[in-house]
Write a structure and sequence with these properties.
Structural class: alpha/beta
CATH architecture of the largest domain: 3-Layer(aba) Sandwich
Strand content: 15-25%
Oligomer: single chain
Distance between the termini: 42 Å
Shape: globular
Number of helices: 15
Number of domains: 2
CATH class of the largest domain: Alpha Beta
Strand order of the largest sheet: 10-9-8-11-12-15-14
CATH topology of the largest domain: Rossmann fold
Radius of gyration: 22 Å
CATH superfamily of the largest domain: Vaccinia Virus protein VP39
Number of strands: 21
């Protein structure tokens, strides 16, 4: 394996402690978004460790094995604007931030990891200036062409100083899920601080560790997500950087997320009760005890055995299984469940993935209409966060006698006689 494409850290990315312990062992997995052309199938594929570790000093849960960022984000195809649910969520997100903090028109908003600029569009509707930053070059250039100025680079202190010089201070800096994607969080936050003035805010959205555990969200675990965040370790992290959490809002997006708002210590805004409430909840749930993660790991193993047993039973009956959704979560699910050999093909609406093959198991991606042409007996939903909408939008498939399989939070087979 090339050392250039994979590295390993030996300390916690929040508190720098070396007191780390393996909490959730997982099988090495190919990089989730690396769908392959037929020609690329002959090349050797990179399989990377996906084990989760807990810092026993601060409680932060994280990957220690890091895929080289330029490799990870080259030919990146994920686009937030394709999801109606995410678009609606970002509209509400921008609305809430503007209502709560009431910045003047023409204040600058900088979004780190802005993807296709979906969130920034809603801030622009509020008459705020906008600037995106995203390392996925093709997506960044496309966003700029569509009127969302986006810098196609990784964010760091150097870039922060360049932005400050050209655009001035930002009143709002956002990082949505990108805050889980970054390895050196100290440098990222120091860069964010350069962009902030005394009454600016930093807003981050993260997949919430408590929801990952409670809902057994295996699909959120892939190499882009270096961190599996919770509030207690983050509060300690921000404290040492002269910052403080002032507001937290939980939501159901991506299976369970939260939005945190941070300011400089003793800043303009009063600390909301939501911060204390979530810290109490985490203590009650024993979220930072490694035993809690061990239970989660056992639940994954139990689900794996149930899924493999179901798939073997279906195969013995000579029934066909296809996958629905060439999603990032699907690569993790198929690899960890070890079911790739039993899936005939995948379907997806994304034309960029159609005709390509999935990472690892090399399952061909077809257009979604293919399920009505070939009529597979079962469709495994790989885009797990969209399961309800997928089933709702494809009632016709159920009416034809087909069945959907959903693995999480529990294994279910859905046909025309039952509901999700």
């Amino acid at each position: 394996m090339s050392k250039k494409l994979l590295s390993r850290r030996d300390n916690c990315r929040l508190c720098n402690s070396n007191n780390l312990k393996l909490a959730v062992p997982l099988l090495p997995t190919p990089v989730a978004e690396k769908y392959l052309t037929k020609k690329e199938l002959k090349s050797k594929e990179l399989y990377c460790p996906l084990d989760l570790y807990m810092c026993l000093d601060c409680g932060h849960v994280q990957l220690l094995d890091i895929v080289e960022p330029n490799f990870l984000y080259s030919n990146y195809t994920y686009s937030s604007g394709r999801s109606k649910g995410l678009v609606n969520h970002f509209r509400e997100y921008a609305e809430n931030i503007c209502n709560k903090f009431n910045f003047k028109k023409d204040s600058l908003v900088v979004d780190i990891g802005s993807n296709d600029g979906t969130l920034l569009k809603f801030f622009r509707e509020k008459k705020l200036k906008i600037l995106g930053i995203d390392p996925a070059t093709e997506i960044a250039l496309k966003a700029t062409k569509e009127g969302i100025e986006t810098i196609p680079k990784f964010f760091n202190i150097k870039l922060a100083n360049e932005i400050l010089k050209k655009y001035g201070k930002a009143k709002i800096v956002t990082a949505n899920n990108a805050f889980a994607h970054m390895d050196d969080l100290n440098e990222i936050v120091e860069g964010i601080k350069i962009l902030m003035d005394k009454d600016s805010i930093f807003v981050f959205e993260i997949s919430y560790l408590l929801d990952v555990i409670d809902n057994v969200l295996l699909g959120t675990i892939f190499h882009e997500h270096h961190s599996y965040h919770s509030i207690k370790p983050l509060k300690l992290f921000f404290d040492k950087l002269n910052m403080e959490l002032v507001d937290i809002t939980r939501n159901s997006i991506q299976g369970g997320s939260l939005i945190g708002v941070v300011q400089f210590k003793n800043g303009k805004y009063k600390i909301n009760n939501s911060v204390k409430e979530i810290l109490v909840l985490e203590e009650k749930k024993k979220l930072h005890k490694i035993e809690t993660l061990k239970v989660f790991s056992k639940n994954l193993d139990l689900t794996k055995e149930k899924v493999k047993s179901l798939f073997r039973k279906i195969s013995k009956q000579n029934k066909t299984i296809a996958g629905f959704g060439a999603a990032r979560s699907g690569t993790t699910l198929i690899t960890q469940m070890q079911i790739g050999s039993m899936i005939q093909y995948m379907v997806d609406d994304n034309e960029e993935k159609q005709g390509k093959y999935s990472p690892g198991d090399h399952i061909l991606v077809r257009p979604t209409k293919y399920i009505y042409e070939k009529r597979p007996d079962y469709l495994l939903i790989l885009a797990w966060v969209h399961a309800k909408n997928i089933i709702k939008n494809h009632q016709k498939y159920l009416d034809m006698g087909g069945s959907f399989i959903v693995c999480f939070p529990e294994l279910k087979v859905i046909n025309k006689n039952n509901d999700l």
